[in-house]
Design a protein that fits this description.
The protein contains nine helices and two strands. It is an all-alpha fold. The longest helix has 19 residues, at 37-55. The protein is globular, with a radius of gyration of 19 Å. The relative contact order is 0.21. The structure holds iron/sulfur cluster. The site of iron/sulfur cluster (SF4) has 10 residues, from loops.
């Protein structure tokens, strides 16, 4: 799972349209000019938010979209992220964002395998950033795919439980999906949220212990 499902579906729907392919090329070219993966991700997040804001100016969209603050059914799915997005999330953790390490480690074991991820219980699949109050602890910096999920059907169906395959009708977020697809197409180090983020955190820890070999409780000079 290195490409996000919804953005890929949108791409496949329009890939035969030459003006759509030109649009993706223009977006990708613009993103390639930014060398910093974090900068690229921040830029795309802003673009997505802008596109979604535009869509929500439509009163029908406001009425039909069922997503409400505190509903976190879709936060129990595997989230595809880019290298830049993983770096942003690691930075938020270092700044003190709430994170559930138990779930992060558990979900990292699934790697990028969607089937291994969905073999876990619904509770264990809760995103490591999902708080007990059902809120996202990194909302301002949430990954691009989390910014484009708006459901028109019953939000209950977003809870994918074992053995179920419910039908979910999503808001068509074509413009935002195009930015998501362009970002992922650069193939920085795309992956799933838990393993990608954990790899960065572990590398940071390794570097820190090299720089400060005598620090930390396990390095006590009394032991
Ligand atoms: S990052 Fe936030 S919005 Fe995205 S799945 Fe996790 S809790 Fe939900």
């Amino acid at each position: 799972m290195v490409m996000p499902a919804i953005a890929t579906r949108t791409y496949k729907l329009f890939e035969k349209d030459s003006s759509f392919r030109k649009l993706i090329k223009r977006m990708t070219t613009k993103l390639k000019k930014m060398n910093d993966p974090m900068k690229r991700a921040h830029f795309v997040h802003q673009k997505i938010d802008h596109e979604i804001k535009e869509q929500f100016k439509n009163p029908s969209v406001q009425t039909l979209v069922q997503c409400k603050k505190g509903c976190s059914a879709c936060c129990h799915s595997q989230v595809a992220i880019t290298e830049g997005e993983a770096q942003i999330l690691a930075q938020r953790i270092n700044e003190g964002a709430e994170v559930n390490y138990e779930r992060l480690h558990l979900q990292a074991k699934a790697g990028t395998s969607t089937s291994a991820f969905f073999k876990m219980s619904f509770e264990d699949r809760a995103c490591a950033f999902l708080t007990d109050r059902g809120l996202c602890s990194v909302y301002e910096d949430r990954p691009s795919v989390c910014r484009t999920n708006y459901v028109l059907s019953d939000p209950k169906n977003c809870e994918i439980r074992a053995g179920e395959n419910p039908t979910v009708q999503l808001l068509n977020t074509f413009s935002a999906d195009s930015w998501v697809y362009s970002l992922f197409q650069l193939r920085e180090k795309n992956g799933a949220l838990a393993p990608s983020l954990l790899a960065i955190l572990e590398e940071e820890k390794k570097q820190a212990s090299k720089a400060f070999p005598w620090s930390g409780p396990d390095q006590s000079i009394d032991s």
